[in-house]
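In the design runs reported in the main text, the only information available to the sequence generator was the tokenized backbone. The following block is the verbatim input for one such run; it is reproduced so that readers can re-run the procedure and compare outputs position by position.
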């Protein structure tokens, strides 16, 4: 599967798409707290939500959490550079572990987030685990790609849980542009 750089206006040359097959498990009642507890049951095609047929899962029942795992070999980087792990979006609450250590978390199913992998720079292999929590019964969360009923009634697409946008690694120098803001005149 070929993937173009996800942010064309901020494109960097040293990047690696992590879209594609990841190990996957559904945690129906959100009982697992750490990857060591997970019973990996299959694979999923990232960045497609497990509710969609394109993911290879097509799960249309309710579940409160799901888990992703992928191992990536990485090249060494210069000491003054950083390796960043980007998520376009994970619905709704994500916790990320790198090589068994909690590396970061994010809440909000529509916004991108980045994990700085500097503490893991010495490793030639990264084991990435993501827990995505999205309780369909939690009506206090912003609605959009969620539905609390099995049959969509106010939306015209499947519920969306987990990783649903591109995931990628990139290397940046010690000083880099993180974001740009345009203000029209």
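Verbatim output:
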């Amino acid at each position: 599967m070929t993937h173009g750089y996800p942010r064309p206006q901020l494109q960097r040359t040293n990047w690696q798409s992590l879209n594609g097959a990841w190990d996957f498990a559904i945690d129906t009642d959100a009982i697992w707290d750490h990857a060591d507890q997970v019973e990996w049951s299959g694979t999923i095609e990232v960045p497609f939500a497990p509710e969609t047929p394109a993911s290879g899962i097509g799960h249309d029942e309710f579940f409160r959490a799901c888990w992703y795992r992928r191992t990536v070999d990485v090249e060494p980087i210069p000491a003054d550079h950083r390796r960043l792990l980007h998520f376009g979006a994970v619905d709704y609450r994500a916790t990320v572990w790198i090589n068994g250590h909690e590396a970061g978390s994010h809440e909000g199913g529509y916004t991108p987030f980045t994990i700085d992998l500097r503490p893991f720079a010495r490793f030639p292999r990264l084991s990435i685990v993501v827990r995505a929590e999205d309780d369909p019964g939690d009506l206090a969360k912003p609605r959009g790609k969620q539905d609390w009923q099995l049959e969509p009634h106010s939306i015209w697409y499947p519920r969306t849980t987990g990783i649903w946008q591109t995931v990628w690694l990139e290397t940046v120098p010690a000083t880099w542009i993180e974001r740009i803001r345009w203000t029209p005149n």
